[in-house]
Structure formats: structure tokens, C-alpha cells
Hints:
This protein is of the alpha/beta class. It has helices spanning 23-32, 65-77, 98-105, 146-161, 176-183, 196-208, 238-243, 245-251, 268-272; strands spanning 10-19, 37-43, 53-60, 91-94, 109-111, 115-118, 130-133, 166-170, 188-192, 216-218, 229-235, 252-264, 280-287, 290-296. It folds into two domains: 10-101, Alpha-Beta Plaits (2-Layer Sandwich); 107-296, Rossmann fold, CATH 3.40.50.
Amino acid sequence: MNSRTGKARRYFRAGFDVASSTADEAAGILVAQGALGCAVKEPFTPRPRRSKIVHLEAFFDRLTSSRLAQIESTLAAAGMLRNGTRRSAPRRIVDPGWSTLWKERFTPLRIGRRLLIVPPWDKAEVPGRMSLVIEPGQAFGTGHHATTRGVLTLLDAECARRHFHTALDVGTGSGVLAIAMKLFGIDDVTGIDNDPLAIAGARHNAALNRLAGRIRFSAAPLGAFRRRFDLITANILSSVLIEMSSRLKRLLADDGRLILSGILAREVEPLMAHYRPELRCLASRIDRGWATLVLGR
């Protein structure tokens, strides 16, 4: 509801047919492309058993036909858009009250041994856990997705074993991983993302955690860095992790740790072929078909 006019807020809706196994990952891409949220509406074709294709709906404040075409191209390039999907124009819909429903669903979430992810409107505290405040926005990463949860869990474990001085979060999104790094006591933390909206959101979330100015958020490309880092995290599509493998290996300190996610379980071996023999897998975690890996020399 618009408080000034008394009229219900309107949004744009777009639909995408994607493989059910990649629906979560496709939703993450859509949020990174500006979607306010996503929902699986229905199988592409009714069947007695679960369809391999699902219809994923995404909702936007604004969406033109040309912008929709760009988003469809991004999904297609990632191999997620079903072949032959018909392109349709964005449809305007009236707000059914999502803001209240979203707040009801985004409840405090325990991750690892030390973290509690909370929204700004919930001041919940749990003895022995550090509260990490994240405001849901256009950038990916609230801790609820299996990939983010996997990185946070293994990050917690690694930081409990040793002290890291420098850390880099590649594709920082909401900044949740970079903020967790700082809460875990890492001295120098940098988060990078090629989306200006993500950088703005990450800085906002850092401020919510009283870390304004204490984490370096930047749109600098990975290739701009020359110094090496004790710890690097990257929760991105596996195809991107493969493409940047040589740069990530170069930036990792000799005794450093590289935590990777955004990898389907079946993609682990093809991905590791690009990181061996320089790095080996020291720890791993599988959650809902998504793999998170800790690599080191």
C-alpha cells in the first residue's frame, strides 16, 4: 500500500521455465538482476511425478521488455533457461501484501556454531552466538540459500581453527560473507562485486552491523588485485569459478584457504580439474544438492 495515495503498490511479473535442479540458482541470478523476489508457480507440464521443468516467477519494481530480454540472455548463457521458452512481455500486478508476508518468513537463522542471521526488524539474541544483521534487498545472500549457508558454516569452522589477517569475498552480493569474516576477527576484509546495487546494499548491511567503513567494498575487477590473501570466498556459478580459477589460485597465499560454493554436487569433479594440482580439497559440505569446498595447498 502506498502511504501517500492509499493505492496498492504495483509490480511487474516475469516468468521463466527452468530445470527444477537449478531453480534456486536461477532465482539467485534473478535477484542479482534486480528481482525483489521469486516463486516457483507450477510445473511446466502437469505430471504424476515432479516435473524436471518448473515455472519460476520473478517480481520487479520496474521491468521493460528490453531489460527482460537481457535477463533471459543471462539465464540462457548460464545454461538455465529451458530451450524454446517463448519470450513474453512483463505483466503488471497489484501488490498482494508481500512486504508483510516476507517479514513473517524471514526469521532468525542459526548457522554454524557461532552465527545467528537476523533481519533489522528482529532483535533476537541467542547466548553464545553473534547476531549478523542482513536486510533483504536486491543482492543475493541472506544465509537461507544452501550455498550461502554452506560457506558461512565452513567459514566459521576455518576461522575457529586459525586467525586470518587478510580476506577477499568475490561476488559479495549482500556482503553477508564479508561481514561474517569481520565478526570472526579477520583484520583486513575486502568484498568485490560488479553490481553497483550490490555494493550499496553491502555497505548498508555493514552499517547495520556497526561495521561502516571497516570493510572495503569495491567494484574493482578480480584482475585488479596484486596482493595475496590468507582467505578467499567465492559463492558464484560454477562456470564462473572455472573461468576465474587461475586468478583465484594466484591471489591465494601459500598457506591460505579458498572457500567455493554455487556448485552443484555433480559439478565438483569437473570444477576441481581446474584447481588441481596447485590446490586440493581439504573439507567439503553438501546441502540440498549444493556443494561447498575448502581448498588449500
